[in-house]
Amino acid sequence: MELEILLQIAGSSLRLATPLLLACLAGLYSERAGIFDIGLEGKMLAAAFMAGAVAAVTGSAWVGLLAGIAASMVLSLIHGLASITLKGNQLISGVAINFLASGLTALVGQNWFHQGGQTPQLTAGGRFLALELPLTETLAPIPVIGPIYQHLISGHNILVYLALAAVPATWWVLFRTRFGLRLRAVGENPGAVDTAGISVVRLRYAAVLICGLLCGIAGAYLSTGMAAGFVREMTAGKGFIALAALIFAKWRPWPALGACLLFGFLEAIGIRYQGITIGSIVIPVQFMQALPYILTVVILAGFVGKAVPPKAGGRPYVKER
Amino acid sequence: MNTSLPRWVDLGLIPALNLTLAFLVAGLVVVFIGENPVQALRFLVVGSLGSSYGIGFTLFYATTFVFTGLSVAIAFHAGLFNIGGEGQAALGGIGATLVCLAVPWPHWTLALPFALLGAGLFGAAWAFLPGYLQAKRGSHVVITTIMFNFIASALVVYLLVNVMKVPGSMSPETRNFAPGTHLPFMHEMLGAIGITVAKTPMNLSALLALLAAFLTWVLIWRTRLGYEMRAFGFSEPAAVYAGIDPVKITVIAMVLSGAMAGMMALNVVMGFQHRLVLDYVGGAGFVGIAVSLMGRSHPLGVVLAAILFGILYQGGAELAFEMPNISREMIVVIQALVILFTGALENLVRIPMQRLFARSRTRAA
Question: B150: which chain A residues are within 8 Å (Cβ-Cβ)?
Answer without folding.
Answer: 237, 290, 293
